[in-house]
Structure prediction request, 327 residues.
Amino acid sequence: MSSTLRKIAKAVATVSLAAASTFSLAGQKWDMPMAYTDSNFHTQNAKAFAEAVKVATGGELEIKVHGGGSLFKGSEIKRAVQTGQAQIGERILSAHANESAVFGFDSVPFLATSFEESDKLMAAAKPTFQKLLDKHNLVLLYSVPWPPGGFYAKKELNSGADLQGVKFRSYNNATARMAELSGAVPVQVEASELSQALSTGVAESFISSGATGYDRKVWEHLTHWYDVKVWLPRNYVFVNKQAWESLDENTQNIVKGLALMAEKAGTARSEQLAGWYIEQLAAHGMNVGPAGEQLAADFKKIGDTMTKEWLAQAGEEGQAILDAYRK
Ligand code: PCA
Prediction:
């Protein structure tokens, strides 16, 4: 090789090496732990979001979704993102009410019981919620409600008294409290471990949407679902603040835009699937329908107690959310 050619080859190698290292410095790979199974509609929605981010940023930001609690268990996800062990994550919002009652705004019984009301409540809560998240070193990207929650059981429920002594699976403070006030015995179980808890008799009843009943094939263990519409709890997607600030403004804007779309698309999907999930429970032999008069009245009473308790815990911030919602 002539010395001129050698010089050119060296120059090309140096330039392409520099280009490659610039790319790897600028390009980021984020891990996104999620608690619910890969086929769940929230997880599917997040996968579509991650794919869109990759395409729209020309690969500058790649988000890898880890479903089903495979990277961090549900109960560990928030802490992992706060401390930067993962850059982005998703969790059911009300599970964090044990840290601050404000996180439970969407799980005040019978406060918001339709998709429309759920959106309205989220809009009312957003300023307070975002301020709280900032204190936790997190930035909110989007949130999507589950379909309305009802009661699963393996016998007919005619009144609240029928839950006396029943082993009741909870997934947050509100479901545990509802169990206690019904005289049931709460036991905390992640959705990813629900089938096992039902098959081993650790749990025999719980509150959840048709989505989780379908995802976990609960018809293999239970017989009834009562459409109580107690709430529409949200999953929310949050980013570690330092990870967020490490993105340039252009990338942040792309991510924010796609997050807004993910919220709309996920919510539309939840609403679209809500009835279908219930049909699936029925198609697999479960009795599905509204709660009878006595059962509904008993739950309503428990709901009133829990609303008072939540307001006492969430204080002025809680009251501000309720006032903005009812305006
Ligand atoms: N499914 C989740 C939370 C709310 C819902 O509908 C669960 O049961 O864990």
